[in-house]
C-alpha cells in the first residue's frame, strides 16, 4: 500500500487551482491498492476480490454418469448400428447408487446422474425403449452408437483446472462454483478503508427543516453508498466546519486509520469571483441557454422540442397506518390510453388518473410520527402550458380521493392532517425544469432521441451538460448515465 502523509503545509494545499488534466494525473498517481490478504468463508466472500487463483480439487463430474433417465446397455461390437436390438433388464440404478457390472446383451434401468456401471458403454433414453409386457426386456428400434448420453468424468471441470482467477470480484455464481468443487474458504484482499468528511456551512442533514440559504447534504449519502457498493470499509466523519483548521484536523484524524481519504465541499476563490477550467451544468437545457447563455448561439431546433409530461403532487401527513400498503404503490387508470391523450392532446388531467403513492415511513419509521404515515401522492399531468392550476387542484384532489377511497374502502380525507401541493408551475419555479416537465423533452416524436442536446458544447470549450433534459434522456437512471458520460468525456479530454 502506498499512503501519502497528511501535511496541511504541503504545496498541494497552498498552490492555486490546478487544471483538470493535472488533477487527474495527481489522483491516478495517488491511487490506492492493497496487498494485504485474508481467508474468508464462502458465506462472507460475496463482493470481495480474490487474491489468488482457485483450482479445482476434483473432477466434475467425478465419475461417468447418465445424462438422462433411460437404460444403460452393454453393446457389443457386432451390434453397432443395428436396428431392433433387444436387451435383458438385469439391474436398476438410481442416482447415488452403484450398479453391478453388465454383460453384453444386458441392460440396467438408470436415472439422471447415476454412475455408469462397469461393462455399460451407452445410455438410451427411456422414450426410445420399448419394454416387454413382463418388464424384463427392452427393444430399441433405431441403430445405436457408442457412448450416447454419457457424461464422462471431468466433462465440466478437470481436477486442478483454474475455476476462478485472481482479481475477480466474487459473485453468487462464483460462490456456487467454489462450493461445487469442495472449496470452503477463499483468499481475498482485505477491504480498503476509506475515510470521508464533508464541508460546507450551507449543508443540512436530511430530516432537519431547511432554513434560508441552506441545502440538504446529498453528496454524503451518495459517496458513502458508492464506496460501500464497491466493497470499501467506510469511516464517516460527517460534516465538519467550513474552516481550514477543521479540514486539517479531519485529515489528521483519518490519516492513521485509513488507506484513502475522500471529501467534498466548496472552494472560495474570491468574494464574488469564481473561475473554473471546466463547467458542468445539470440545469434544464432551455433556461441554461435562455438565461445563462443568452448572449451565445441558441440551438433553436433543440430548445423548441415538445416538452415531456409533468406531475401534480400532494404531500399528505396521514393520521393512520395502512398495513395493506407498501413503500411503493400504483393504482392504474382504467383507460391508460385516454389518460395520456388528455395529457398530451388536451393538456388536461384525466378524470381517472394513475395514482402513485410513496410512503417512506414504511421503510424509515422516523419519517412519520407513531401510527402515522407520510404520503407522496403523484399523478401524471401535462406540463405548464398556461393552465389555471389553482382551480384544477380541488377537482383533481377529489378524483384522487374517490379512487383511493373506493380501492381502500375508507374516507381518506378524514385522516389528512397536513397537505402541501406542487403543480407543474411550482415544479418549474423550484427546479428550473422548463414548463415543469419531469423528463426534459417529450419522447412522442420519433426523432426526439436524435434532437436531444449532446453532453458537450460545440461552441463553448470545456462546457458540459448532464441531467434529464440532455442526452440520453429523463428519469433517474438516464440522468446518472449522462453524468457518467460527462465524466468519461472529461477524462478522455
Protein described:
Helix content is 24%, strand content 23%. It is an alpha+beta fold and 493 residues long. The protein has a six-stranded mixed beta sheet, with no helix packed on it. The chain is extended and about 90 Å long. The chain has twelve helices and 24 strands. Strand 8 and strand 9 form a beta hairpin. The chain has five domains: 42-59 and 156-181, Molybdopterin biosynthesis moea protein, domain 2 (Alpha-Beta Complex); 65-151, Molybdopterin biosynthesis moea protein, domain 3 (Molybdopterin biosynthesis moeA protein, domain 3); 191-275, MoaB/Mog-like domain (Molybdenum Cofactor Biosythetic Enzyme, Chain A, 3-Layer(aba) Sandwich), CATH 3.40.980.10; 279-305 and 439-491, no CATH class; 310-436, no CATH class. The relative contact order is 0.10. The protein has helices at 11-14, 20-29, 172-180, 218-229, 244-255, 285-292, 300-303, 336-344, 389-408, 424-431, 448-451, 476-491, and strands at 37-41, 54-55, 65-66, 70-73, 85-93, 106-110, 122-125, 129-131, 137-140, 150-151, 162-164, 185-189, 193-199, 203-204, 215-216, 233-240, 260-264, 279-281, 310-318, 328-331, 355-358, 373-381, 416-422, 463-465.
